[in-house]
Design goal:
40% of the residues are buried. It contains ten helices and 15 strands. Helix content is 28%, strand content 18%. Strand 3 and strand 4 form a beta hairpin. The chain has 362 residues and is an alpha+beta fold.
Length: 362
């Protein structure tokens, strides 16, 4: 590996050797071939950082992606187009997160704050990005919401609560993050003690097609740790505005080299239109949240239209799910294993997405 492509912690040959290493046996897979490549990449990536220089007019991030895929393909065989796309999405997300974090370190040491973030003045400090995590894309951050209050005594001000933002552009259909937390069969959730159910309901979402409710855990003050359960920080748009994101669920089929197949429900947030750097990510919680809106005294803006959502091509989540299973640290709160007949015609290449909404009130 050419030294100008990577700044490694230690000898550059260490990175090259780790990239050429073969994945361990029993690694969870998203298809029958080359299935541990995302996990292999992420393991290698932990020991390397990306240089911001360009080589022959090409960014080091692109060079690194090509180098990894070239070295791996040499030892593993040709990749299908879908597998290349799957791996590239993970690589780009990790590169994006590392480059953004590196940029913030540089900016914090200079007297001139960054420009280009909507709503930030030149005197504002750069946002503190959330650390890299397999359950979300890079470049996200939590900051005070800019959703305007349009009626009542506080009209003209903004929500006095956290919001979810992106520091990088996200294309329409782009993956933003997973909705994480405790997963309950909806019937079990409804049977929880009233006080606990009502507290969890503030951030709970329902997947009606699978009768599953997911809710991030609360601390002693009733708050959610948004650095871990990031999607819960996303607010609704104000009445005169519209959502720029939506949440859906899908069942991802994951097999391993031993031939065992398992099925995992994932709940994910996607952009329904292109988002520029500095945009607050907003989604409409659904009609079931209307009682809570009435209690809070506000009206929400419209959801992403069916026409917008239906026309989008969502990125494959197979590689990300396989990497989460391999890593293990987020598998319990990001993936919900369900029973499903694997003898049917469904394929691991097919991801059927269904709507997700905030939990309906009783």
């Amino acid at each position: 590996m050419r030294e100008e492509l990577l700044d490694c912690k230690g000898d550059a040959s260490t990175c090259e050797m780790s990239l050429r290493g073969r994945p361990p046996e029993g690694t969870p897979v998203a298809s029958e071939r080359h299935v541990s490549l995302p996990a292999l990449f992420l393991a290698s990536f932990k020991d390397c950082s990306i240089s911001r220089r360009k080589v022959d007019g090409t960014s080091s991030a692109t060079q690194f992606s090509r180098k990894f895929m070239h070295d791996t393909v040499e030892s593993e065989g040709a990749l299908s187009d879908e597998e290349v796309e799957e791996l590239a999405a993970l690589i780009e997300a990790e590169l994006e997160a590392q480059q953004q974090n590196a940029a913030l370190v540089v900016r914090s040491r200079t007297p001139t704050p960054p420009l280009g973030f909507q709503g930030l003045s030149p005197r504002d400090p750069p946002p503190e990005l959330l650390p890299p995590d397999l359950t979300r894309r890079g470049g996200l951050y939590i900051a005070p919401s800019r959703v305007p209050i349009e009626s009542g005594p506080s009209a003209g001000s903004t929500l006095q609560q956290p919001g979810l933002f992106t520091s990088v552009a996200i294309p329409a259909g782009g993956f933003i993050c997973m909705y994480t937390g405790h997963f309950f069969p909806t019937e079990s959730f409804e049977s929880l003690p009233d006080a606990r159910r009502d507290a969890l309901s503030r951030y709970a979402v329902e997947v009606e097609d699978h009768e599953i409710t997911a809710a991030p855990p609360l601390d002693g003050t009733g708050s959610v740790d948004f650095a871990i359960h990031t999607a819960a920080a996303a607010n609704e748009p104000s009445k005169s505005n519209e959502a720029n994101a939506f949440i859906e669920a899908s069942v991802i089929e994951v097999g391993n080299e031993g031939g065992e197949v398992r099925f995992y429900l994932v709940i994910c947030m996607f952009a329904c239109r292109p988002l520029s750097a500095g945009t607050e990510i907003l989604w409409n919680y659904g009609e079931g949240y209307e009682p809570q809106r009435e209690l809070a005294g506000y009206k929400a803006g419209s959801a992403c239209s069916d026409q917008e959502v239906d026309g989008l091509r969502r990125p494959s989540l197979h590689g990300r799910v396989a990497a989460i299973l391999e890593d293990g640290s987020r598998s319990a709160d990001a993936l919900f294993e369900i029973e499903q007949d694997s003898s049917g015609e469904s394929s691991s290449d097919d991801e059927e997405w269904v709507p997700v909404k905030r939990r309906r009130g009783r």
